[in-house]
Every structure is written in C-alpha cells, then in structure tokens.
Amino acid sequence: MKTWQRRLWKGFAATFAAVVIALATVIGIFRLLAPLVPSYRAEVEHWAARVLDRPVSIAGMGARWDWYGPEITLDDVKLFSHDGKYVVITAHEIRLGVTLQALLHGSFSTPSRIILVQPQLSVVRDSAGHYNVRGFGDDTVGKRQVDWRSGLNDAFQQRAEIMVRDGSITLLDRRRRATPFVFTRVNIKLDNAADDHRISGTLQLPPAFGNSLQFHAEVTGEGLHPESWPWHASIDGSGLEVPILLSYWPQYQHRFVDGILDLHAEVAGNGATVKQFKTGIKGRDLLSAGGSAHGFATLAGEVAWMRSGTGWKLDGRDITLTQAGVSWPVSNFNLAYDADTQGDVWQGDASFLRLQDIDTLISWLP
C-alpha cells in the first residue's frame, strides 16, 4: 500500500473511531439522565397548562432515543376545557424532541419537534352549520365558532416540527344524524421555518364520505397574512361520495343525489388572489337532483385555469363523458379571455362538443 493511501486510511479510521466514541458517550450520558425525567412531570404539566390556558393531565413521563435524537415522552395526555368538564383532546403519547443540554437542565419548553401519537378530537357541527370543538372558546358546545385562522396562525408560528400519527377525528353533525362520522388514520406533518411553512397529511374517510384523502400545502411568509404570502396546495381523493361531500358546500347542498369521484386538484396563488388551478377527475354515476337528464354515467379528464396579466386561459385535456348511453370521443378544448385596450377579446376551440352535455355541465355551476 502506498504511503498516501496508508495515511488516508489511518485518518479515516481515526475519524470513524472518534465519532463512535463520541456517540457512545452521548448515549451513555442520555441513559444516565433518562431516569431523572419522570421527576419533571409536574413541572411539564404546569408548563403545558400555562401555555395552553387549560388544565392538562399527564399520566406518565419518560425518555427515549429515536432516530432523530433524544425525546421526552408524555403518556396518556388529556387537554381539558377551562372548567374541566370536557376532554378536548386526548393522546396516547406525545413525544418532544429535545437536546441533551435541555435534558440536563430540565428545560422542555422549546422542543425541536412535537409528535402526537393517536390523538383523538371531537368536532360538532351545530344546526346553524357552525363548527365547534368541545371545550374550545366557551365551555359549552355551540356558543362560539372555533377561530380556525387564529389556530393556523399559532401553528405556523411554532418553530418545532409538528407531527400527528394515527389520529382520529369524530364529527357529530346535528343537521344530518345523531350517529357521528369518524375519520381515522389521520397523519399530519407541519414543518416550519422562519418564512416557509409546509403541511401535509393523509386520512381514512368514513364509509359515507368515501375511501381516503391526502393533502399538501406550502406557504411562504411570516404567519398568515393573506395580502402578501404566495402559496400552493394540492389534494387527492379516492372513491369520494359526491352527494354527502358537496352537502357541506352551501351552494351545492342537495344538488347531487349520487356519484363517486376520484380527484386530484392543485391551486396556487399570492395572497387572496388565485393564480392558477388544475384538476383531474374520474367520476361515475354522477346524478344531479334534476334526474338522469342532468347527470353522466362517466366523466373524466383534466382541466387547467391560469390567470394572465389582463385575463385568463382555460384548457381541457382528454375529456370523456357518457350521458344517456352516448359517449364523447376523447376531446380537448381551450378558452381564453383578454381585456386589452381594444375591449374584451374571447377566443376558443374544441375538438368535439354536444350542446346538450354543455347545458348539463352549466347547470352544475353555483
């Protein structure tokens, strides 16, 4: 072996040995400190209650070493309403990512990551169509709506990475029926930086709503300031039950009586202005309240809308549909609008059209 190769090998071996020794030392210190963690349970319980402004119960507390580093574990956590009558959120376990320095000094108030394992939350939709979380705001259900914008703003200001694993959400809709809907396998990840926020998640829908749903959103900017932040969001749904889902959209309530839809949609904008929208759908048995003459046995394709400086453009690709046993060939279309100095200008083209089908589609608009 050449001299330079021998020196390189010795340097590599020495560096590797140093890393292993340092890692072993860190893990050894962690194991020594871990038994001390349960003694901080009351302190952490008091801190959480002060931050959340609600009573908090923690059954047990411990420590573990995860792939990401040391974690403090809080077992069987319950967040109560102000008066202690209702359990707002329960979690089988909450994991707080901490540094060894924080572990040494018992300082857990600024974790680098927060993982909620099997949290459970109940949401009530009252007879007026307002959504409330039991115990939030007033200590009775239905007195005040949840401030979702304030909640999102608080989440986006949190510098820790927040994760939800295998959670569940129970929806009690007093306008529909007494039996609640349960959304399961809820997994969410919120990753925050100073001016970049990303949230993504998946969930299993109740059978009445469909199969599954997943979403992703990115926001650039400090907090939620609609006048300034650029954003992008996407959603994917499988086997969505059209009538019940659209019943939660006031303009479409009672508009459809049947239909199943697979959906992919993306939307992007800046502030309160939508810049572009794209969707791909595959639907079947889409029947509106007007009867079979106002529905489609199948409907599929991709549609994209984009805003320009003085107008907008709409494109449709691979459009297919079937109505009353008659099917479209695979078709494309485009439509553009421009408000220039000469006045309003419209341009469009379509490879195939049936006016009666267009009339049905127009009847679906809000």
Briefly characterize the structure.
The chain is an alpha+beta fold and 366 residues long. The protein has helices spanning 3-33, 41-52, 100-105, 148-157, 242-246, 355-363, and strands spanning 56-66, 69-80, 87-97, 113-125, 131-133, 161-173, 181-192, 196-204, 212-220, 230-241, 256-270, 273-288, 291-307, 311-323, 326-327, 331-340, 343-350.
Q: Helix amount, in percent?
A: 10-25%
Give the N-to-C terminal Cα separation. 79 Å
| Overall pLDDT level | 76
Which parts are unreliable, with pLDDT below 50 for 5 consecutive residues or more?
Answer: 13-37, 138-146
Radius of gyration: 27 Å
Please, how many helices? Answer: 6
Biggest sheet features: 17 strands, mixed
Which oligomeric state applies? single chain
| Molecular shape | globular
Strand-and-helix sequence, N→C?
A: HHEEEHEEHEEEEEHEEEEEEEH
Helix/sheet category:
alpha+beta
Strand content: over 45%
- How many individual β-strands? 17
